[in-house]
Design brief:
- Keywords: ATP-binding, Nucleotide-binding, Nucleotidyltransferase, Transferase.
- It catalyses: 2 ATP = 3',3'-c-di-AMP + 2 diphosphate.
- Residues 8-147 form the DAC domain.
- Pfam families: DAC, DisA-linker.
- This protein is 55% helix and 12% strand.
- It has 354 residues and is of the alpha+beta class.
- Helix 2 (23-33) packs parallel to helix 4 (64-70), helix 6 packs antiparallel against helix 7 (185-212) and helix 7 packs antiparallel against helix 8.
- The chain is elongated, with a radius of gyration of 28 Å.
- The relative contact order is 0.09.
- Bound molecules: adenosine-5'-triphosphate (ATP).
């Protein structure tokens, strides 16, 4: 099952607020360094107050020092939902003891139950384990140091580089098959599968960038670099194979596939829109992707060429004279296009065979 996107967004927004370098994170880090603990409710809804017992009311602006000093007291803290003020301290929280929790220790059991019962996220600092955790929508998310996140991110970057390499290999193969008019649904599914695997890794890396806060700038640049050309590829593939064999080819539904199903070419083919067809069914490319590689050939001409000749095969088969039947194509442009097509076919072969 793909994770719930609403939960993911909410969790990410809180991870961003608690990212290294933010004032909130600074407060929790100070508590950690002081080897004390904390239980902080990140919102002041009526339901939160109903579950508060004892402690005292206050209304002070949030500062890392204030959080550190107030957490020295026994009990927990309540912050406003905007996370800019501290409104209660030394509070004993009394959530429903029937709510199931796998946490051990009263602080973390309380944190888990409070977040489940009120829907308000809760942050804890464990005195005994020296960890900071975020409880949100029934899950516990440990907050990692920048070094820990970077270790995972670097592994993901390496995998992404390998996947990119593989994607360009399968796309080069697709290009060669398109020139020979030998493409099957399986060949296209393979490219779609690789594309989606990369998208998932990019998303994972994007999450690390958010989690890293100010420490994520370099990773963000790297992520943009590694993503170059991928959106264009998606767009061109969709233009090429949309409405082929009665299928509405699009990559978007692949986000819904589980990792196991994404590895199955038939599931991928079904996902991108070929709902009934056999994997060996032949399909032909319109040619947008390959024609876009011809130097200085404006997009408007590519569309006209494809419209006029029907598909890539048709364009490849056209003589210089036939090319001139296309609106706006005179003798010299026809010659440039013809030469471009020849060079394209040559490069496709040499790239694929090399
Ligand atoms: N219901 C509660 N409301 C407010 N604070 C609580 C509550 N339960 C525990 N705490 C706070 O947690 C502190 C530590 O409790 P305990 O050692 O049982 O928890 P723990 O989960 O093992 O925590 P740690 O990992 O920090 O050792 C208490 O002294 C108190 O400040």
């Amino acid at each position: 099952m793909a994770p719930d996107p609403a939960h993911r967004d909410r969790e990410l927004s809180y991870l961003a607020l608690l990212a290294p370098g933010t004032p909130l994170r600074d407060g929790f880090e100070r508590i950690l360094r002081g080897r004390t603990g904390a239980l902080v409710i990140l919102g002041d809804t009526a339901q939160v107050f109903e579950l508060c017992s004892g402690g005292f009311e206050l209304d002070v602006p949030y500062t890392p020092t204030a959080l550190r000093e107030l957490s020295k007291m026994d009990g927990g803290i309540v912050m406003t939902s905007a996370l800019d003020r501290i409104v209660r301290a030394g509070v004993q929280f009394v959530p429903d003891p029937q709510l199931e929790t796998v946490e051990t220790g009263t602080r973390h059991r309380t944190a888990d139950r409070m977040s489940r019962q009120t829907g308000v996220p809760v942050a804890t600092v464990s005195a005994s384990m020296s960890t900071i955790a975020l409880f949100i929508d029934g899950t516990r998310r440990p907050l990692q140091t920048s070094e820990q996140i970077m270790t995972r991110a670097n592994q993901a970057v390496q995998t992404l580089e390998r996947y990119r390499e593989r994607l360009w290999q399968v796309t080069a193969r697709l290009s060669a098959l398109e020139v020979e008019d030998q493409v099957t649904i399986k060949d296209l599914a393979l490219v779609a599968q690789r594309w989606e695997m990369i998208r998932r890794l990019q998303q994972e890396l994007g999450d690390y960038v958010i989690e890293l806060g100010t420490d994520g700038r370099l990773l963000n640049l790297q992520l943009h670099e590694l993503g170059a050309g991928l959106d264009d590829l998606r767009e061109l593939l969709e233009l090429d194979y949309h409405d082929n064999e009665g299928a509405t080819f699009t990559l978007a539904p692949l986000t819904e596939l589980s990792t196991a199903r994404l590895l199955e070419p038939l599931d991928v083919a079904r996902g991108v829109g070929f709902v009934n067809q056999h994997l060996d069914t032949r399909i032909s490319a319109r040619g947008f992707r390959q024609l876009a590689q011809i130097n200085r050939l404006p997009a408007a001409y590519i569309s006209r060429l494809v419209d006029h000749f029907g598909n890539l095969q048709g364009v490849f088969g056209a003589t210089t004279t036939e090319l001139q039947e296309v609106e706006g194509v005179g003798e010299s442009r026809a010659r440039i296009i013809r030469e471009g097509l020849t060079r394209l076919a040559e490069s496709v072969y040499s790239e694929h065979l090399g």
